[in-house]
Amino acid sequence: MTWREILRILLALGVTLLLSLTVGLFVSVRGTESRNTVLGTLVLLLGVTLLPLFYQVVNEHFLRRGWPGFGVANLSPWVMFVSGFENAYQRTGGQSYWGSVVLLLILSLLFLSAAIWQLPRCWQAGLGSGTPSGGVHRSGLRKRRVRALGGGVSAADPCWRLVESFDDEPGWLRFVRAVLLLVFGSTVILALSTRSPVQGFVTAMGTALVMSLLTKLFLALEATRRLHQDRRSGALELLLVTPLSVERIVTGLRRGVNGVVWRSVVWVAISIVVLIAAAIGFPRELEMQPSDQTVFLVLFGGALAALVADRMALQWLGLHRALRATTHLRAAFATFGIVMLPSWAGLGLVVALLSAGSSGALEAGAFLALWHLGSVGYSVALWKAYRLRVIKEFRRLAAGSAD
To answer: Structural domain of residue 228, as residue ranges?
Structure first.
């Protein structure tokens, strides 16, 4: 690596940091809740990074137009980083790299200008209405859905008020999910009907992974948000002196979280099932050997099991962290990190082991199966352990409130 290459990568890091700051500022101006601000910033950055790459994949592998060296894909920070390495830089004569730098600087300036333009208007709107702009309103349809999910929580039960107090998922999150599902469905169809099945199937897998990570992050934010707000405002102390038992309070909190995140979880599960069906039903169209098919089925089946186990672990650990953390974001990110980071570390170890030797499909499938077993077992252990801790912590708080 030459010093010129190092300087180009450092410049790319600086431009990416500037873009992240301006995107965060733009989202923060409009956001009134931490979950919306965090998820909105992450989704917007992922969109800027991945959508141009999706355009490049479709343009190069499905439309067969080739890579022009400069175009829409240069809006992605990933293209800027890759183009900064010496081989790619020499191949395009620096056009792709410097084009990305200029486009991303212009994009950062646009986000900053939009934030500055919106700021006084958002303040005036908030002062004029007396409530923060961008609030979420619950509909009768949602109330009926939460009641159905509540299973035994009727409108006459005080626990129903706790379940019903949860806000619905943000509208922009539904839009993002719809876009990701559109990308997922189109890439699966392209993989099965064109001459580039590998690129299409890998893109569909990546889209499903993005949906899964966003869903789990949203679950961590939602599992900690309401309880942390109630603890900070003093509403939790009032709730603990009501006739509701600790078990009913915890049940109401969990069902409230389920009422918010259930659609995201279901769509992620459906996307994984579609990948499993494609691997089983269309191995020839996807150019899969029987050994490769087994590896993919192990990967997708484990992902489905991990979705269920991680969902329960994030819920219970989130409730526990919300009772202890000083801020909502600290509770949410601690929850997400404790559940997900060990799994990612295990995946990194598996990839390193498979890359170190000449492992075949059988060894790859065995390593992935062991990784999934470890990840699911870890999440189940967290789920069981923190379920007991949450109940114990609530009982301790209830005893203190009674005194």
So the answer is: 141-403
Q: Could you tell me where the DSSP H helices lie in 31-129?
A: 34-57, 77-84, 86-92, 95-129
Show the DSSP H helices in 130-157 as ranges: 140-150
- Asked if 227 and 203 sit in the same domain, the reply is yes
Q: Whole-angstrom Cα distance, residue 79 to residue 53?
A: 8
Residues 6 or more apart whose CB falls under 8 angstroms from that of 395 comprise: 246
Q: How many whole angstroms separate alpha carbon 87 and alpha carbon 81?
A: 12
pLDDT in tens, 42-99: 888 888 888 787 777 776 666 555 545 557 778 888 888 888 888 878 887 778 888 8
Evaluate whether 310 touches 265 at the Cβ level (below 8 Å).
no
| Tokens read off for 336 | 């997400």
Residues 78 and 216 in one domain: no
By residue count, the chain amounts to 403
Q: Which tokens in the block code for residue 7?
A: 């300087």
Question: Three-state DSSP class for 32?
Answer: coil
CA distance linking residue 388 with residue 370, whole number of Å? 27
Q: Output the pTM of the full model.
A: 0.77
Q: Which amino acid is at 106?
A: I
Q: How far apart are CA 74 and CA 58, in angstroms?
A: 15
Q: How do residues 151-167 score in pLDDT, each as one tens digit? A: 445 555 556 666 666 77
Distance CA 339, CA 309 (A): 10
Q: Do 59 and 170 fall into the same domain?
A: no
Number of folded domains that form the chain: 2
The residues, any chain, with a CB within 8 Å of residue 211's CB and separated by 6 or more, are 177, 180, 181, 184, 264, 267, 268, 271
CA atoms of 104 and 109, how far apart (whole Å): 9
The answer to whether residues 130 and 146 belong to one domain is no
- Cα–Cα distance for residue pair 114/101, rounded to 1 Å: 20
Confidence of residue 186 (pLDDT cuts 50, 70, 90): confident
Q: How far is residue 53 CA from its own chain's centroid?
A: 19
Are 288 and 192 contacting, i.e. CB atoms less than 8 angstroms apart? no
HSE-CB for 81 with a 13 A CA cutoff: 9
In whole angstroms, give the CA distance from residue 215 to residue 212: 5
Q: Which residues of 65-77 are buried (b: 16+ CB within 10 A; e: fewer)?
A: eeeeebbbbbbbb
The larger pLDDT score, comparing residue 162 to residue 5, is at 5
